[in-house]
Write a structure and sequence with these properties.
single chain; about 475 residues; alpha+beta; Uridine Diphospho-n-acetylenolpyruvylglucosamine Reductase, domain 2; Uridine Diphospho-n-acetylenolpyruvylglucosamine Reductase, domain 3
């Protein structure tokens, strides 16, 4: 702990009390490593305010003492976006004590939640009022509202409702100078210049601290059905999706694509799983079909649609879950993919997007190109085909999971250049190297390498304009030296 940090921590204690400051290394340690265990930082303290006024006081004092802050919620970032620098230069600003639901208004279709509210608790609060918050993901038991906003989180229901950006109606923000911007009123029309709310969505804590959000909620579903379908190819899957959309309006809420070979890995490595269909298929599709009325049942409606798809040759086989337990078993197959791949060996993961109609061809061409350039690797994609976002993975040859030294060498010598090739292919296709996980530390250099000079200059100018001293989440999104340099 340096002298500036000591003075800053003393000032926070004097202003907010001992409950707002944690300096015991044992208590800090769990929050110094990212969700995937790839990034490890150091911090002399965790600062934990329980109010917006407390956040404003800490941010203002940090500016006065020149101490960088790393905002952190559930610490579920997939790209090292909430991990402090390894040199211990920054302190963690935890929003976890700000965990109150301020309001749920079913008539307005809005809920106001503080930044530390866990996604699962937000969903429960909406459900208690006969509504739901239509965004879900694997980390729903730990991811917080502030983190979801700051990373523009996606998940499996983006097809119908969009990512977090589409669900945010207003934000309360503490800016880097300690001032509070209250934009929670959720105005439908507001033409007062730059939209600060949308600017902070996806900013990864580099432009200020989200302390509360007004979020859109929707009526609770009346009925839900889950289907598992075998198809010939990604192109066939997209054709199936377009047919289902034409015939069902907005009832298709999730449309997940899974390669048959990846399902094989799940069945191999995840106990208690079984294939829903008797025959093996090259590709599988997982569908959630949701209705606003209980009659006709979602099960019958989806079954009728899939019967038509089979008759028209758009699918090879299909089954609709007969119970909630069976639907959960279908989703477990999808949610266990990363676990199964890790058990098989080293994997380089890419969270990418291209235009929806271009994605099937891209998946096939990119996989073939990477495998040709790096013999022995296996490349494939899975995930949210309906919104043009797949998780494109490059997998090492089998056997390396038993040899850590060889696995590390593969990551450096093959995995890293193969990853750059994937990103090059994505950009050439007009896509994005980060569809829903953000940039953080992991993709920071690739963002600069592959973005136009105009884009990088604009990002730096915005960062410098709001945070000229580079104190907010340093080293994320933009390189530390660049984030502190005037444009």
């Amino acid at each position: 702990m340096n002298a500036a940090q000591t003075r800053f921590i003393d000032a926070v204690r004097a202003r907010l009390g001992d409950a707002a400051v944690t300096t015991e290394s044992f208590d800090i340690a769990p929050w110094l490593t990212d969700w995937r265990g790839r990034y490890h930082g150091a911090s002399a303290a965790i600062l934990s305010p329980d109010s917006t006024a407390g956040v404003a006081a800490i941010v203002g004092l940090a500016r006065d003492h020149g101490v960088p802050l790393v905002p952190q919620g559930g610490n579920t970032s997939m790209v090292g976006g909430a991990t402090p620098p390894a040199d211990g230069s920054a302190l963690i600003l935890s929003l976890r004590r700000m965990n109150r639901m301020r309001r749920v208004d079913p008539a307005a279709g809005l809920a106001v939640a503080e930044a530390g509210v866990i996604l699962q608790d937000l969903q429960a609060a909406a459900e208690a009022e006969g509504m739901r918050f239509p965004l879900t993901l694997g980390a729903r038991g730990s991811a917080t509202v502030g983190g979801l906003v700051s990373t523009n989180a996606g998940g499996t229901q983006v097809l119908r409702f969009g990512p977090m950006r589409a669900l945010v109606a207003g934000l309360e923000i503490v800016l880097p100078d300690g001032q509070v911007q209250d934009g929670l009123s959720a105005l439908k029309k507001d033409n007062r210049g730059y939209d600060l709310t949308q600017l902070l969505v996806g900013a990864e804590g580099t432009l200020g601290v989200v302390t509360a959000a007004t979020l859109r909620i929707v009526p609770a579903e009346a009925d839900r059905a889950t289907g598992w379908i075998g198809v010939e190819s990604p192109q066939a899957a997209l054709t199936l999706l377009r047919m289902l959309e034409r015939r069902s309006g907005d009832a298709i809420e999730s449309f997940e694509l899974v390669p048959g070979e990846i399902l094989d890995l799940v069945l191999k490595h995840v106990p208690g799983t079984r294939a829903p269909l008797e025959a093996r298929h090259p590709w599988l599709v997982l569908i959630d079909y949701v209705t606003k009325t209980a009659q006709p049942s979602a099960h019958d409606a989806l079954e009728q649609l899939l019967t038509t798809a089979l008759a028209d040759g758009l699918a090879r086989d299909a089954v609709v879950a007969a119970s909630m337990a069976q639907a959960a078993a279908f989703w477990r197959l999808r949610d266990s993919i990363s676990e199964a791949e890790r058990a098989e060996g080293p994997t380089i993961a890419h969270d990418i997007s291209v235009a929806v109609d271009a994605m099937p061809d891209f998946m096939v061409r990119a996989a073939a190109a990477v495998e040709a350039a790096y013999p022995g690797v296996h490349a494939t994609g899975f995930g949210h085909l309906g919104d043009g976002n797949v998780h494109f993975h490059v997998n090492a040859p089998a056997g390396l999971q038993h040899d850590p030294v060889a696995a590390d060498r593969w990551q450096r010598e093959i995995g890293a250049p193969a990853s750059r090739m994937v990103y090059d292919l994505v950009v050439a296709a007009g896509g994005s190297i980060s569809a829903e996980h953000g940039i953080g530390q992991m993709k920071r250099d690739e963002l600069e390498r592959l973005s136009s000079p105009a884009r990088i200059a604009a990002l730096r100018a915005i960062k410098h304009g709001l945070d000229p001293d580079g104190l907010m989440n340093p080293g994320k999104l933009l390189a530390l030296a660049e984030s502190r340099r005037a444009p």
